[in-house]
Amino acid sequence: MLSDNMKKALNDQINAELYSAYIYLSMAAYFEDANFPGMATWMKAQAQEEVGHAMKFYAYVFDRDSKVELKAIDGPQTEWKSPLDAFETAYNHEKHVTDLIHKLVELANKENDHATRSFLNWFIDEQVEEEASTKAIVDRLKFIGDGKPGLFMLDRELAGRGSGGGE
Ligand code: FEO
Question: Ligand 1 centroid vs 147 CA: distance in angstroms?
Fold first, then answer.
């Protein structure tokens, strides 16, 4: 069974992952509206991936004979100034999630909770990818600037991400 502290922290992380899904779905809606269907596809896949992250925590809490307690999810931002602004928000959000995962690791270490510590390894690795994939797109968008042909090409490229894709 999880300690009360750990149970609360893991339940908070379920909320944070679902909020991540919500903010990426909100970005997808922004991109649909701004006529960037490929970026919208990328964000919808990202949102699905975040639900998958939440479900990993959900299953783990039950596996440890503890209770999942869902809380209200905050409303996400709905407008961005540009594709670059949206992807910079995504990159900064992923850095924030990395901090949350690292805090969970510190708590597991403090409590000598070896099982949770081991469970979190997958998320430590995943966050490296999450930061790298959003940062790569931020860098591309900075390079493209306001150039419409470049934005069009990047949008077509990002459309190639399948639902639930993890690149
Ligand atoms: Fe679940 Fe993108 O971190």
Answer: 30
The closest alpha carbon to 33, from 77, 89, 80, belongs to 80
**Architecture of domain 4-67+78-163 in CATH?**
Up-down Bundle (1.20)
Residue 55: count of CB within 10 angstroms of its CB: 13
d(CA 98, CA 126): 9
- pLDDT value for 165: 42
C-alpha 149 – ligand 1 centre gap (Å): 30
How is the chain split into domains, by residue range? 4-67+78-163
Convert the pLDDT of each residue in 40-67 to its tens digit: 999 999 999 999 999 999 999 999 999 9
| Res. 161 pLDDT band, cuts 50 70 90 | confident
* Confidence band for 162, pLDDT divided at 50, 70 and 90: low
pLDDT at 166: 44
What is the rounded distance in angstroms from the CA atom of residue 40 to the CA atom of residue 27?
Answer: 7
Q: Report residue 8 CA to chain centroid gap.
A: 20
